[in-house]
Design brief:
The relative contact order is 0.06. The protein has a 5-stranded parallel β-sheet, sandwiched between helices. It has a 5-stranded parallel β-sheet with strand order 7-10-13-6-14. The protein has 21 helices and 16 strands. The protein is 46% helix and 14% strand. It is α/β, with parallel strands linked by helices. It folds into 4 domains: 119 residues, Rossmann fold (3-Layer(aba) Sandwich); 180 residues, P-loop containing nucleotide triphosphate hydrolases (Rossmann fold); 88 residues, Helicase, Ruva Protein, domain 3 (Orthogonal Bundle), CATH 1.10.8; 71 residues, Arc Repressor Mutant, subunit A (Orthogonal Bundle), CATH 1.10.10.
Length: 482
Amino acid sequence: MTAILVVDDEKEIGTFLSHLFLEKGYRVDVMSCGSEFLQIELETCFYDLALIDLKLPDTNGLMILEKIKQHQPNCKVVIMTGYSTIETAVRAIKLGASDYIEKPFDDIDLLEEQIDQLLLKTPTRGGQHVTNLANEVGFIIGSNQTMVELAELAYKVANKNINVLIEGETGTGKEVLARFLHQASSRNYSSFIGVNCGALSESLLESELFGHEKGSFTGATKQRKGLFEVATNGTLFLDEVVEASSSIQVKLLRVLESKEFMRVGSEKVIKTNARIIAATNENLFEAVKQKKFREDLYYRLNVVHLVIPPLRERIEDIPLLLNYYLQRYPEVKLAFTDEAMDMLQHYSWPGNIRELTNFVTRLVAIEDANEAIIGAEQLPFSVQPQKETLPAKVKSNVAEMSPNHKLKEIIEKWMNKTLNKYEEEEVNLEEILSEMKGLETEVARAFINKALDKTYGNRKAASKQLHINLRKLRYLLNEKEK
C-alpha cells in the first residue's frame, strides 16, 4: 500500500490532505511538528511520499527533508510553502526535494495531479528523460556532475511560474538552457521569444518590450505589440539583462511586480502572464554592488539562480560535444587521434561552446576527404592549449617543436665567433664555410619552430606561413639530412 507522510502545523491542512489521500486508498500519517516526526523509526516505517511544511513551530522543514533523504532516499518529498519562501523551497529542491507546492491550495485538481505524477512516475522519467528533452533543443548535458545537477534543477523548476536568472560566460549556451526550461514547462505550446538587452538602444528596447501606439514617436507609423504582450502565455528571454538602462530596469521591475504594462504612447493597461528568464555573462550581484543594476530588480529576477560552467571545467564532455556537432554534417565522417583529443581537451576554449561549434564548422570546411582521422598536426592553429596544461605525451612533442634559444642569440653567437676568427692571422676557411651552413640550418629551424609554436604543431599551417611546401619543412626539420 502507498504510504504518505504529512507534516504541517495547520490542523486544517493535515485533515484535508488526510481525507484526500485516504479516499485514494493510501495510508496516511499526519504530524504537526518536528518533535513528532523525530519519534518515527525511519529504518522500519517506510514512506513513498512526504509532504512537509517549510515552516514548523519547532524546526525547519529542510531538517526533516534531510532526515528522510538520509534514511529513505527513494521517498519523494514535496515542500509546502508560501510565496514569500519560494527561494527557500528552491533550495530544498537542491537538497533532494522532488517538488514544492505553494499554499494556500487554490487548485485542488492541480495538487492531485502533481501528487499522482510523483507517485506514478516511472524510472524512465528520470535522468534519461531529462537528457532526451535537453538533446531536442541542443542542450548537451554530458557526464560532468555540475552539468547533470544543473539540468536536474532546471527540469524541476521548469514547470513553475517563477523567474529564472542564468549566469555564465559568453558562449556557454545560456539561451539554449533557457529554451530547455521552456520546452520542459507546460508553456511549451506557446512562444519562446528572446531579446538581447545590450543590442538595442534604450528607446528601441522599450518599444520592443512594451510595444507602441501609432504616432507615439517619429517613425511609429502603426501600432505594434511588445514582447511582453506577444509572449504572454509563453517565455520571454532577456539576454544580457545587465546592459538594460536604469529607465528600462524601472519599467521591468514594475511589470514583474504587477504583471501589467502600457505601450509607449498609450494609457491603456495591458496584462501579461509571460514567464521571465534573464541571462547575463556578468556576475549580476557584483553589478548590484557597483550600482550598475537595481537591487530590487535583481531579487525579482533571481528567484532561481542557474550557473552554466565554462567548457574548460567540463573537458570530459568534449568528445561527446564534438560527436554531437559533427552529426550536423552527415556527409562527413571525421574522427580524432588520441593525441589530437588530448590537445582539444587541454585547450582553454575561451569562447566556450560557441567556439567549439565554430571549430567543428571550420574543420569540416577545410577537410577535403569525406572520411578522415584528424591528428594533432592537423588541428587548426587557433586551438592552442597552454603548455603547462598539456598531458606529458603531447607536452613532449610540443617541446621538440619549440626553439631552445632565440634567433638573436643564434646569430650573435655565430657573429662573435666569426669576428674573433677574422682577427686571427691564420684561419681554416673550409671550417668557417661549414659553420655558415650550420648557421643556415639553425636559422631555418628557428623560423620553423616559431611558426610551429604559433600553429601549435600544425605543420601544414606552419609551412603556409613560411611560404614553403610541407616536404621542404620536414626536410629542414631533419637538419637537411638527405
